[in-house]
Specification:
Layout lengths: L2 H18 L6 H24 L16 E2 L8 E2 L5 H20 L8 H20 L3 H10 L1 H11 L4 H34 L8 H6 L4 H18 L8 H8 L2 H26 L1 H6 L1 H20 L4 H22 L2 H32 L15 H15 L5 H14 L6 H27 L16 H19 L2 H26 L3 H10 L17
Antiparallel strand pairs: 1-2
Length: about 525
């Protein structure tokens, strides 16, 4: 298989698998086939890592066959690829695929075939989001994830699953429709300016378009609103705890591990380079919302009695750090935000898995129904303590790397008020240790408070297969983050250069500056075999 076509196979293999699942004769065959398909997607994604050119990580690599998506009269194309920002997120998506199948093995007992079909469709949507370099194609994949997630929550969720599913759809769809309006407007404006009057959603053509500041403000608001809901940023977060708590364990892992990252990825991929001046002018406002989310999420987590709800609110806090790092606009903070997306997907995903394993044993998520279970399940306790320490940011584990880079980068930012916000955000690290260690102490240590916990079985082989790879990644990312940071560093540098030069161009009437900007602008025609990049560093 040629590498340029590999990315297309990775994206659509789960979708093809979902169609073949329709003919599976039994629930057992459905599970095994879904596992084989997701494992196949993960194995096929490994050459993306080993064949990735780190030196040119800011350029588009592993491009698929490009073709018109709608008609020849519109510059809307099937244009996929990966760069340093998207590689790790694609690998995270394919890595979590088989884990989600395995964690659902015994948990899902009704409509098994439909459940795994929806999971595979969801994986295609999520992978496509991180590979699309046509913004309308991105939108199609972005919306594709909405349908299966709605049914996963609404059919296999908890008692309030219908309420949670509808709330999730209404919030997400409201933001998405506003983004679609912005995409259409931007496509016509860019087409008139840089594409001979032809409507375009080609990412690289849109980067060539210097959006007027007044237009930037409104378009930025529409894009940022859609992504803020997806992250979610305070105060658009209220759908998340309901969706997490009511979703089955696999759905919660998908939400925490990948779906929320679609929002932060969208902020980096589209809002910052398309609307640099508007992004800079809204830095303080978004920074304030991010810090409120950090502190608020941590305080509300400490007040919870339901372990799954505690982990859900912790996502609001942890992703507040990611948003703060993105809008601090320094190399360190952007690097920290990108690696923290991966870290959060692994650590919080593992927390949801462990809470789900406990629920399968005792059919309760209330922390008061546990206590002292370390005596009954020592191996599970080990993984829980390791995961909690990683999520709390203990040095040597993955959570520390991202939070440290974000805080260092944000504190050195020139953005107004960012130092004060960084100091306040630092309290979130302390509060995370408080609520996470409190949860572990209450559930796992002390005297056995319930007789039913005395005979609780420890981890079985399937559960070890799920947790061991995640634990290893927490340690590897904590001790050796440099190979992962090298992947995103050129893309982060390129993004900062794009923002700086576009802002300088927009804010200056100096013709010499404009000529220098144009000399740095490499406009590569659509369909060129060379990987397109807009600005030289």
């Amino acid at each position: 298989m040629e590498l340029p076509n590999l990315l297309t196979v990775i994206i659509f293999l789960p979708l093809v698998g979902s169609l073949l699942l329709l003919f599976a004769p039994s629930d057992r065959s459905v599970k095994w086939f879904a596992l084989i398909v997701t494992l196949g997607a993960f194995v096929l994604s490994l050459p993306l890592w080993f064949g990735f050119d780190v030196v040119n990580a800011a350029d588009l690599q592993f491009r698929g066959i490009e073709f018109p998506l709608i008609s020849e009269t519109l510059d809307v194309r099937y244009l996929i690829g990966i760069d340093g920002f998207s590689l790790l997120l694609v690998l995270l998506t394919t890595f979590l695929g088989p884990i989600i199948v395995l964690c659902s093995w015994n948990y899902i007992t009704k409509s098994t075939k439909a459940y795994y079909i929806l999971l595979l469709i969801l994986q295609t949507g999520m992978t496509g989001v991180f590979c699309a370099f046509d913004i309308l194609l991105f939108y199609i994949f972005f919306e594709l994830t909405l349908i299966p997630m709605y049914f996963l929550i609404g059919i296999w969720g908890g008692e309030r699953r219908i309420y949670a599913a509808i709330k999730f759809v209404i919030y997400t769809m409201a933001g998405s429709l506003l983004m679609l309006i912005a995409i259409i407007y931007l496509g016509y404006a860019a087409g008139n300016a840089v594409n001979d009057g032809i409507f375009t959603t080609n990412y690289f053509k849109l980067l060539e378009f210097d959006v007027p500041f007044g237009m930037q403000t409104w378009l930025f608001i529409l894009f940022a609103f859609a992504f803020a809901i997806k992250v979610p940023i305070f105060p658009f977060h209220t759908w998340l705890p309901d969706a997490h708590v009511q979703a089955p364990t696999g759905g919660s892992v998908v939400l925490a591990g990948v779906l929320l990252k679609m929002g932060t990825y969208g902020l980096v991929r589209f809002c910052l380079p398309f609307f640099p001046s508007a992004s800079a002018s809204h830095t303080l406002l978004i920074g304030i919302f991010a810090v409120i989310g950090i502190v608020y999420g941590a305080l509300v987590s400490r007040a919870q009695t339901d372990a799954k709800k505690l982990v859900a609110y912790s996502s609001v806090s942890h992703l507040g750090f990611v948003v703060l790092g993105i809008f601090a606009l320094t190399l360190e903070s952007l690097q920290g935000a990108m690696i923290q997306m991966i870290n959060h997907g692994i650590s919080t995903g593992a927390l949801f898995l462990i809470v789900g394993m406990l629920y399968e044993r005792r059919h309760t998520r209330l922390m008061s129904d546990y206590g002292g279970i370390a005596k009954s399940v020592p191996v599970l306790t080990f993984f829980m303590v390791l995961t909690v320490l990683a999520s709390a940011g203990l040095p040597g584990l993955n959570g520390f790397v991202g939070e440290f880079l974000i805080l260092v980068g944000a504190f050195s930012s020139d953005a107004p008020g960012m130092q004060t916000l960084t100091i306040i955000a630092t309290t979130g690290v302390i509060l995370a240790a408080v609520y996470l260690l409190w949860m572990v102490s209450r559930m796992f240590f002390g005297p056995l408070t319930h007789e039913a916990n005395r005979t609780m079985p420890d981890l079985n082989f399937r559960e070890l297969v799920i947790l061991v790879p995640m634990a290893l990644l927490m340690i590897i990312l904590g001790l050796m983050p440099q190979p992962f940071l090298k992947v995103s560093e050129p893309s982060a540098n390129r993004l900062l250069n794009v923002i700086e030069q576009k802002r300088a161009f927009a804010e200056s009437d100096d013709p010499n500056l404009q000529r220098r900007f144009e000399m740095n602008d490499r406009r590569i025609p659509t369909g060129s075999p060379d990987p397109p990049s807009v600005l030289k560093p």
